[in-house]
């Protein structure tokens, strides 16, 4: 286990400080918007369908444009792509906020603006994966990814409280305007970022660059097999967050039961990110998949009718495992994938990992209604556990290590807890 002082070494580099500060502000703004937008739409229309339309528009735009976003993030300076994406998302959220402040709740307008914001995310996310390695020394890369994860998970604790306070006092629209300001601040910080110039590479045709990214991903068996597990993890999580609330409210004690479970997940996610900052396993994929497999616990406990507190603890382990795994995964990808194709490969990563999520959200409820709630939850738990643990049968996944040297002094070395 590394010391706290060593864990914060990436922040000594002004390049990473600028990136991290912008990401932290933007993450808080995003978490505020997620709650404020839901409150605004449900309060104004009383329709969960209207909220679903807006959220679906944002999600579909992100998924649809992820691959083009990855290509352009490899073609252009990634910093510029991220600045442009921040400005687009800031504009979209500012207009949404102004509409809500003026008392206008037009679902069609909000859906279009949400799709514009989702399009910005499709370009921003692959560019971020490619930019982080350029802001820190190679030996600090894993800690840098963990610090970004802490900012993201910590924002989940702050955002709902800020959004609720603004919604109850000055109105939910001002929460979206606040988010727009965080995007502007992120763009300003990124604009101040100075990186060593990357030698220009010949521009291949767009489809050729897409094909090159796919070929690069297929070249690494450890990569694409893990993405199958990630996709199944997200698919199983859809069952938890759609069937779970209904079961918790009806059988475990009402709305407070589901609130307790969600809060357990929030705390667990932050703890997992903090743990990732201090530990650097020598066999990261082995440890990462064991951590992800913890996601089967809340599904199984819900199916078994366990008390809400027990499910909350299990959900904390699930989100904690994900938060611990994410920086390990990001670091491995950044170390093993060539820098010139990193954003394209990352775009495929995002697409394959979350591509089935809309389908899972749509099918989880009908499946539970036809097959039964408990069998659906048990099935999702089995799917998650088998997909995460099954990849460990491959020796290259069990043995893959970091390229920037052995584990940091004092780090856990090959002793995962089964």
Layout of secondary structure:
Layout: H1 4-7, H2 14-45, H3 48-75, H4 78-101, H5 107-131, H6 141-169, H7 172-191, H8 206-218, H9 221-251, H10 255-278, H11 284-293, H12 296-304, H13 308-336, H14 342-354, H15 357-371, H16 373-390, H17 395-399
Q: Could you characterize what this model shows?
A:
The protein has helices at residues 4-7, 14-45, 48-75, 78-101, 107-131, 141-169, 172-191, 206-218, 221-251, 255-278, 284-293, 296-304, 308-336, 342-354, 357-371, 373-390, 395-399. With 418 residues, the chain is mostly helical. The radius of gyration is 21 Å and the shape is globular. α5 crosses α14 (342-354), α9 runs parallel beside α14 and α15 (357-371) packs across α16.
**Overall 3D geometry?**
globular
Largest sheet: none
The helix fraction, in percent, is: over 70%
Q: Kindly provide the radius of gyration, computed on alpha-carbon positions and rounded to a whole number of angstroms.
A: 21 Å
* DSSP E strands, number: 0
Residue stretches low in confidence (pLDDT < 50, at least 5 long) are: 405-418
Distance between the termini: 19 Å
Give the overall pLDDT as a whole number.
Answer: 82
Q: How does the helix and strand content classify structurally?
A: mainly alpha
SS field, number of helical segments: 17
Give me the strand/helix succession: HHHHHHHHHHHHHHHHH
- Beta-strand proportion: under 5%
């Amino acid at each position: 286990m590394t010391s706290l002082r060593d864990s914060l070494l990436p922040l000594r580099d002004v390049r990473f400080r600028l990136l991290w500060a912008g990401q932290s502000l933007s993450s808080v703004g995003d978490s505020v918007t997620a709650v404020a937008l839901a409150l605004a739409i449900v309060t104004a229309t009383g329709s969960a369908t209207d909220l679903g339309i807006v959220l679906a528009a944002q999600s579909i735009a992100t998924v649809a444009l992820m691959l083009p976003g990855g290509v352009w993030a490899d073609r252009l300076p990634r910093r510029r792509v991220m600045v442009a994406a921040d400005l687009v998302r800031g504009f979209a959220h500012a207009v949404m906020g102004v509409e809500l402040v003026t008392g206008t709740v037009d679902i069609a307008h909000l859906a279009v603006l949400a799709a514009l914001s989702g399009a910005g995310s499709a370009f921003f996310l692959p560019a971020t994966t490619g930019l982080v390695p350029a802001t820190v020394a190679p030996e600090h890369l894993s800690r840098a990814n963990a610090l970004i994860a802490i900012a993201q998970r910590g924002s989940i604790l702050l955002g709902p409280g800020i959004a609720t306070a603004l919604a109850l006092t000055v109105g939910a629209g001002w929460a979206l305007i606040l988010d727009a300001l965080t995007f502007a601040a992120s763009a300003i910080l990124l604009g101040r970022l100075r990186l060593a110039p990357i030698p220009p590479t010949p521009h291949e045709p767009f489809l050729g660059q897409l094909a090159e990214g796919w070929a690069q991903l297929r070249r690494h068996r450890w990569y694409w097999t893990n993405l199958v597990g990630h996709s199944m993890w997200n698919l199983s999580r859809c069952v938890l967050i759609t069937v779970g609330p209904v079961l918790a409210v009806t059988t475990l004690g009402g709305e407070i039961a589901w609130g307790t479970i969600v809060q357990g997940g929030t705390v667990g996610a932050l703890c997992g990110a903090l743990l990732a900052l201090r530990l650097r396993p020598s066999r990261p994929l082995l440890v990462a998949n064991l951590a992800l497999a913890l996601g089967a616990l809340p599904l199984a406990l819900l199916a078994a009718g366990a008390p809400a507190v027990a499910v909350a603890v299990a959900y904390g382990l699930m989100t904690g495992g994900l938060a611990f795994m994410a920086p390990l995964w990001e670091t491995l990808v950044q170390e093993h994938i060539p820098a010139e194709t990193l954003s394209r490969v990352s775009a495929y990563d995002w697409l394959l990992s979350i591509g089935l999520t809309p389908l899972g959200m749509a099918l989880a409820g009908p499946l539970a209604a036809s097959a039964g709630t408990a069998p659906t939850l048990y099935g999702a738990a089995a799917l998650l556990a088998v997909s995460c643990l099954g990849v460990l049968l491959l020796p290259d996944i069990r043995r893959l290590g970091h390229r920037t040297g052995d584990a940091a002094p004092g780090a856990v070395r090959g002793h995962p807890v089964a």
